[in-house]
Design a protein that fits this description.
Layout: E1 5-10, H1 13-26, E2 31-36, H2 49-66, E3 75-83, E4 94-96, E5 103-104, E6 109-111, H3 114-133, E7 136-137, E8 140-148, H4 151-156, H5 164-178, H6 182-189, H7 200-208, E9 217-218, H8 221-226
Parallel strand pairs: 1-2, 1-3, 3-8, 4-6
Antiparallel strand pairs: 5-6, 7-8, 8-9
Helix pairs in contact: 1-5, 3-7
Length: 232
C-alpha cells in the first residue's frame, strides 16, 4: 500500500457524511478511512477512564478484522472526533429542568435529571482528558479533536436539537458546498467566531475551562496542521 491510512473514529453516520469527502480530498496524500462508532463512547454510562483504552483498542481490532486487506502497519494514526455536549462545565452550570427534558444553552445546561447529567459530565471530562493526553492507543499514534457543542453547532451555527433527518440534510450540505471548494472549508475551520488557536494541549485546556464546552468552538483545524495542510 503506497498511501498510509488515517483511521477516523466518529460518533455517527452524519459525521462521516459531512466530513468524508472534504477530509479525503484535503488529505489526499493519505487514505482517510472512517469508522462510525454509532455512539459517544466517551459519555457511555458504563465507560470509565480505566476501560476507555480497551474500548478503542477493540474498535481498531474490529475495523482491521472487517477489512483484512488493511494491515496495522498501513495505519499512520488513529484520530477521534467528538462532540463536547457541554460536558466539561462545572456542576454549578447544571440546573434541574422544569420542562421535563434536557436543554443546552450558552451559559448552562437544563437537565431532566440533574444529578445523572453531572455524573455523566464528570466521567466524560475525565475520559476526554485522558485521551487528549494519550499519544498512542492500541500501539498506534492517536489524536482527538472536538466540535463544541456538536458538529452542527460549529459548522452551521445551529444550537437547536435536530432530528436525524435534519442532521443528515446538513451533512450533505457540507459535502456539497465544500467538496469542490476545499480552501473554503479550511477557511471555515479558522473562522474567528469558533476557531481555537494554540497548541494541541492548549486547545484542550481551553475547552475544559469554565463553560467553554457549551459554546461554539473547535480545534479540528489542528488535524490538518499536523499533516502540513494549512491556509496560505
Amino acid at each position: 500500500m503506497t498511501k498510509k491510512i488515517i483511521l477516523l473514529l466518529v460518533e455517527g453516520l452524519t459525521d462521516e457524511e459531512a466530513l468524508a469527502l472534504v477530509f479525503s480530498k484535503l488529505a489526499k496524500e493519505h487514505d482517510i478511512e472512517f469508522d462510525v462508532l454509532h455512539t459517544d463512547i466517551t459519555a457511555d454510562e458504563n465507560m470509565t477512564v480505566k476501560y476507555i483504552g480497551e474500548r478503542i483498542k477493540r474498535e481498531i481490532a474490529d475495523y482491521l478484522r472487517k477489512n483484512p486487506f488493511i494491515k496495522r502497519k498501513d495505519i499512520l494514526k488513529v484520530v477521534q472526533i467528538i462532540d463536547t455536549d457541554g460536558a466539561f462545565v462545572p456542576p454549578s452550570l447544571v440546573r434541574q429542568s422544569t420542562s421535563g427534558k434536557t436543554e443546552y444553552f450558552e451559559t448552562y445546561i437544563s437537565a431532566k435529571n440533574m444529578n445523572r447529567l453531572i455524573r455523566r459530565n464528570i466521567s466524560k471530562r475525565a475520559i476526554a482528558h485522558l485521551l487528549a493526553e494519550s499519544e498512542q492507543m492500541a500501539g498506534l499514534p492517536y489524536e482527538i479533536y472536538y466540535f463544541s457543542r456538536n458538529i452542527e453547532h460549529v459548522l452551521h451555527n445551529i444550537e437547536d436539537d435536530l432530528t436525524d433527518d435534519e442532521k443528515e440534510s446538513l451533512a450533505y450540505e457540507i459535502a456539497e458546498k465544500y467538496g469542490e471548494h476545499l480552501d473554503e472549508f479550511l477557511e471555515l475551520l479558522y473562522d474567528e467566531s469558533f476557531h481555537v488557536s494554540g497548541t494541541y494541549r492548549e486547545t484542550w485546556e481551553f475547552i475544559m475551562e469554565n463553560g467553554n464546552s457549551l459554546k461554539r468552538y473547535s480545534n479540528v483545524s489542528l488535524f490538518f496542521e499536523k499533516l502540513g495542510i494549512v491556509l496560505y
